[in-house]
Specification:
Elements (H helix, E strand, L loop, with lengths): L3 E3 L9 E6 L3 H8 L4 H10 L2 E5 L2 E6 L1 H19 L6 H9 L25 E2 L4 E2 L4 H12 L2 E5 L6 H15 L4 E6 L15 H19 L2 H9 L3 E5 L11 E5 L7 H8 L7 E6 L13 H9 L5 E5 L9 H14 L1
Parallel strand pairs: 7-11, 7-12, 8-9, 8-10, 10-11
Antiparallel strand pairs: 1-2, 2-4, 3-4, 5-6
Helix pairs in contact: 1-3, 3-4, 5-6, 6-7, 9-10
Length: 336
């Protein structure tokens, strides 16, 4: 990549510098960001100082932080060399995950390939999606490798978002013929009464997070056409009874709000050529008191079943605002 690094002789207290050289000044500008805000983000999160000296960046700090900071800079520069931009989320991903030299390629159907400087990328019609943590990376890999996958963890960890991205990738590649998205229509702690309108208008408020994810990955006109052709379906969990879901990528979101009977019904809808993803947060169950969550039962019963994977997320995998992770950690500490 044309990047060289050298470490000057050690100074006192292990506070020395690692110098990383970048030959392309245009790409270096993109690496630093407007008003050096990319460098500031790396400095803040890694506890180092970064000084710019011509086409070189000097990373100053303790040995481990210094070496990790230099590795992050190289990784982001390599991303720029492929023609992609560097945004705050990309920096966050580079900081969370170690760089990997070889790209990860996962084939399914008509050769789905994922590659990036971080090792994995999902290409949709509107943008490319990359896992930002090791847990997310393992989750995406399992969704391609297993017929059924569970993603369990707190809000903001990308469970549903990444599952929809994988589904869109597989639909585009021809690995599946349609995407089916479902959620239990359970009110989150408040009584909404009788909603006006037809059936679609009544259930749409419950399904809005799924629409939001799809709109991120597919152009509006294409999504509308896919929905008209029933190649993308969004429906409440209750509507799954009696169906056999073949050649489809099926997602059950907010699965902690499915009863044990509903969960068994849903899981047994899986047909030939299909993949199924179940996502949920065990800390946000809105079922009536005394009702067992179907997610809890499925997790207990299906552990070790061939073809079924379980991936778990923690507050460290939250990719929303950093405050969300701190809020989750505070609630977890209060519950201990």
């Amino acid at each position: 990549m044309g990047i060289s690094a050298l470490t000057p002789p050690p100074q006192s207290n292990d506070m020395v510098e690692t110098i990383v050289e970048f030959p392309d000044n245009r790409l270096l500008i993109g690496l630093c960001g407007e008003y050096d805000r990319n460098l500031s983000q790396i400095e803040h999160q890694m506890g180092v100082n970064i000084l710019r000296r011509g086409n070189r960046l000097s990373v100053i700090g303790e040995k481990i932080a210094r070496e990790q900071g230099a590795a992050v800079l190289r990784s982001l520069y390599a991303r720029l060399e492929t023609g992609r931009e560097v945004a705050a989320g990309d920096i966050d991903a580079a900081l969370r995950m170690p760089t990997s030299g070889d790209p990860l390629r996962i084939a399914e159907g008509e050769q789905i390939e994922m590659f990036s400087s971080a090792g994995m990328e999902l290409r949709t019609r509107k943008k490319a999606i990359e896992p930002r943590t090791e847990a997310q990376k393992a989750y995406v890999a399992n969704l391609f490798q297993n017929e059924m996958g569970f993603g369990i963890g707190p809000a903001g960890t990308g469970k549903t978002y990444l599952a929809v991205a994988v589904g869109v990738t597989m639909l585009i590649s021809g690995a599946v013929e349609k995407i089916i998205l479902s959620r239990p229509a359970v009110e989150a702690g408040e009584r909404l009464g009788f909603l006006p309108g037809d059936l679609k208008e009544k259930v749409d408020p419950y399904m809005q997070p799924l629409y939001d994810a799809l709109n991120d990955f597919l152009p509006a006109k294409q999504l509308q056409k896919l929905m008209e052709d029933k190649r993308v379906e969004i429906a409440p969990l209750a509507f799954m009874r009696g169906r056999t879901l073949s050649n489809a990528f099926v997602i059950l979101d907010e699965a902690q709000n499915a009863t044990s009977m509903q969960m068994k019904m849903f899981l047994t809808r899986l047909g030939q050529g299909s993949r199924m993803v179940i996502t949920g947060d065990r800390t946000q169950i809105d079922l009536p008191r005394g009702t067992t969550s179907g997610l809890h039962d499925a997790e207990r019963i299906l552990q070790g079943v061939k073809g079924v994977s379980f991936n778990y997320f923690t507050s460290k995998d939250v990719v929303r605002h950093p405050l969300v992770a701190r809020i989750i950690e505070a609630y977890e500490a209060n519950d201990m």
